[in-house]
Amino acid sequence: MEHHILGLHHVTAIAGDAQRNYHFYTQLLGQRLVKKTVNFDDPETYHFYFGTEHGDPGTIMTFFPWGKGVRGGRRGVGQATEVGYSVPAGSLDFWKDRMDAHHILYNNVYEKFGDQYLTVLDPDGLKLELTVPQQQDLRPVWKGGGIDEKHAIKGFHQVTLTTTKIEATAKVLTGLLGYTLWKQEVNRYRFVHPFAENAAYIDLVEVPGEAAGISGSGSVHHIAFRVKTQETLLHFREIISESGLHITEKIDRNYFFSLYFREPGGVLFEIATDEPGFMIDENLKTLGEELKLPAQYEAYRERLETVLPKLS
After folding, report:
1. Is the peptide bond before 276 cis (omega within 30 degrees of 0)?
2. How many independent structural domains does the chain possess?
3. What is the pTM of this model?
């Protein structure tokens, strides 16, 4: 059996207010709340999973909304600094008008690697890019928030990592994870995975002398790469461990199995399986409607339902 990374699986970020985060991603961006659960290490904090209808890998943006007391993050070296979504051709004017209507910060449309994109800041300052890829993205969409199929988000396009020198990070991407360098524009290097049908790009931006990023609201906690099975997951554990990088044992995250390691530039990487998926405890129609708890916290459900913020 051949073992391959299949692009991005999910991206996890930190937010402040849970209601504000939930409203922005479901009502303004039109994403589906695929799963409402809690942080494995801090069960008094939600863990939201936003994506398209089925919660397909490569579409899932997840958040730990740690409340108003969490410090603000700052983009910089050693972080994933931009999260790019794929949107249909001809949709960027729609998205500009939508951001204007909701008083959301955005930049004018620019282009990189031949793709037009609109930069948007979410309410916590997380930098998002709505990108029209040159190659048509055929993934189905979730038509939430009153957004039709002609404009709706398809899933991830790319993630950008910022580093002082790209060599060590690039070596992990190419030598261990199977990416190849596709193109370079000034100090931005785009890597593509040949076995990924979508969510296939990782950009490395090299900025010598740039300050280190600060983790907090509006910053990315980690990015996760997709594999099909636990067998493939353990294959990558072996080769990453043999490279000299520290990597965790296999961890059961209820909806996928995963491994974590920190690449030399400082970004936390996860590798996550497709199996068992988000419909292990809910059906397609009711995804995200109920609070789902890891087994170790089920006995505390009544208290957690009181402590966790109510969503509307």
Report:
1. yes
2. 1
3. 0.97
